[in-house]
Write a structure and sequence with these properties.
Blueprint lengths: L4 E8 L13 E2 L17 E3 L4 E3 L2 E3 L1 E6 L9 H10 L4 E5 L2 H4 L14 H10 L3 E7 L13 H4 L11 H20 L10 E6 L11 H17 L6 E4 L9 E6 L15 E6 L15 H13 L4 E8 L33 H14 L1 H6 L1 E8 L2 E7 L4 E7 L6 E5 L2 E5 L3 E5 L7 E2 L7 E8 L11 E5 L3 H4 L6 E3 L5 H5 L5 E10 L10 E7 L3 E6 L2 E7 L7 E6 L5 E10 L21 E7 L2 E6 L5 E5 L2 H4 L20 E4 L6 E5 L2 E6 L11 E7 L9 E15 L2 E6 L7 E8 L19 H9 L4 E6 L1 H4 L10 E7 L1
Parallel strand pairs: 6-13, 7-8, 8-9, 9-10, 10-11, 11-12, 12-13
Antiparallel strand pairs: 1-22, 1-36, 2-6, 3-4, 4-5, 14-15, 15-16, 16-19, 17-18, 19-20, 21-37, 23-32, 24-29, 24-32, 25-28, 25-30, 26-27, 26-29, 30-31, 33-37, 34-35, 34-36, 37-41, 38-40, 39-41
Helix pairs in contact: 7-8
Pfam family, one: SUEL_Lectin
Keywords: Apoplast, Glycoprotein, Glycosidase, Hydrolase, Secreted, Signal
Protein name: beta-galactosidase
Length: 786
Amino acid sequence: MSIYTIVLLFLFHSRKRKFYITTMVSLSFILCCVLVSSCAYATIVSHDGRAITIDGHRRVLLSGSIHYPRSTTEMWPDLIKKGKEGGLDAIETYVFWNAHEPTHRQYDFSGNLDLIRFLKTIQNEGMYGVLRIGPYVCAEWNYGGFPVWLHNMPGMEFRTTNTAFMNEMQNFTTIIVEMVKKEKLFASQGGPIILAQIENEYGNVIGSYGEAGKAYIQWCANMANSLDVGVPWIMCQQDDAPQPMLNTCNGYYCDNFSPNNPNTPKMWTENWTGWYKNWGGKDPHRTTEDVAFAVARFFQKEGTFQNYYMYHGGTNFDRTAGGPYITTTYDYDAPLDEFGNLNQPKYGHLKQLHDVLHAMEKTLTYGNISTVDFGNLVTATVYQTEERSSCFIGNVNETSDAKINFQGTFYDVPAWSVSILPDCKTETYNTAKINTQTSVMVKKANEAENEPSTLKWSWRPENIDSVLLKGKGESTMRQLFDQKVVSNDESDYLWYMTTVNLKEQDPVLGKNMSLRINSTAHVLHAFVNGQHIGNYRVENGKFHYVFEQDAKFNPGANVITLLSITVGLPNYGAFFENVPAGITGPVFIIGRNGDETIVKDLSTHKWSYKTGLSGFENQLFSSESPSTWSAPLGSEPVVVDLLGLGKGTAWINGNNIGRYWPAFLSDIDGDNTLVLFEEIGGNPSLVNFQTIGVGSVCANVYEKNVLELSCNGKPISAIKFASFGNPGGDCGSFEKGTCEASNNAAAILTQECVGKEKCPIDVSEDKFGAAECGALAKRLAVEAIC
């Protein structure tokens, strides 16, 4: 039975659009810093116990992550520009060892792996950079960023005082540093990079490595210092970071973090804006209010550097997703979504917070600090210089709102929120009060010219006769090996094959026989004598399992063929590199004769191995077809919805855009050829192309704020709802409240906003008329159609 099939969709074209894929980058944000890309002078980056200092001035630094391999070079300028417009001052990224050195001593810095081009793009936007070399990165990236060939070197042990590992780590780290130095990209050379990182979250696992772990982290510090980059080195989640390394915090909240040295500023390298997604899992979501609360609380409690992880998540192209079972999408619920669109209200609400913090930078970094405790988890923090004072009022109670009298004025502070008073008098921002729009993203059908009603497909079966019937492989060993050892992770697919000769009198032969496999394959297919007897996929994280299926064996030669499939290698934990994958055995033929069970162990038989599939080897994904398909018109991102398919891999114009299982959305553009490898079968007639963009926008904004409605480059076509007073409901289901302004809000906004791409609205009684709402806070609820 042929269950492996290549599905080929023919060329589709557009005169107006270029092929374009998403990537993930690290956006860092530094307050009140302007870096002119043409400057050649050296920037002095140092630190004291209060803050990072740049050219002698203390800075409030906020940073966010965008990883260059998770988007395309075409996307980088737009992503970075949006980061800057969102109030960021720097970009942060990891460096991915296995992407850059896929084969020992063979390097790749082409395409979306062009690290130097990415760093120069940051510089050209007038921003700073934070370079997290690692080279262990975690990042939900395949094998944590380590190349699998590293694991297969003799005597290798990762992340400990192992000479082979330390030599390879130092070699790669040095190569990256020298590349960056050559282009004069460290701040000490006049470039944008103000911080560098060595290792990553080692403190979370150091206990498992004993004294060797402590010695290793000291070696990391010494090695990094010897590279003389001219900017501070950081170590995240490393409470015992050797001096002069700066230890930093990762997590959802880091307000209670204290550095291990009084001369080290309080720094937060990963504020998780959402989370990653697993195949079969729900879309993760972290509320906008909670992200803002965490940031404001961090700065209330003397924080000075904060990085959003992620600011743009992007896409795990090709086989870069880690796991196992991490999805191709790495959207992360970040302020910029997978396609680079503004994720509203998260993007806008944080931008407003950044603007407030920018205005307070000098007070926050030079002011004397005092605290007032109101009880019930409510505190006020005052930063005061000779020129001015700035205040935070934090309510950490999760359920109770607070009404407090602070310096003679009453303030209402919602539960789990922080109010910011830049002059210690007027509240200009509260983390729980969102005064920016929510954008509702929609997928729309392809509106290209001459669109056919259905896609035309051609099929090409995977040629597997040689492995199913003959058991022919590329290598043979009398042992079952881990898939990483045999394949070097060159493919998700590894064939295990053996031939078993059974004599007619062999006691295992009979009518009731089965094949039993002890496996760590993420997905397993089993064949006996060319017949597919069954398959298994891991669920609930149980990656060690026993698969047993009835099978018919004959006297004479019997060919057993097992296909092991990985779906991302582990990327986190102590000794994660040793987690097995594949058919680790033992493998048995089971015969049952009445009450008697006969077991034949095949583990030490001669096993043949073959890596990959012929469709991949023959690069059918690069084939061109005589038919054409028009990509959707316009500039919005294009997604391919693989509804009806099972599991496999997709390519656009020969570029592997990742795994799908059971559906995949990816950004595509231009003259395109789509090729799908379908692993378990499906109905491609349901596959279709769509655009993704803003369908409607809505907001529920407090009085005395300015709301800007925007349809992301498209005109506002209608005002569906508007009411100023105390409206109720949520986006998409607003309703009028018990009080409402005298003027018709919908009519006003229809006149002012319809037909415009952006529409600023002064939320006030001056515009909408008086609203007799008593003590209730007045708000404008509005929903607009794009």
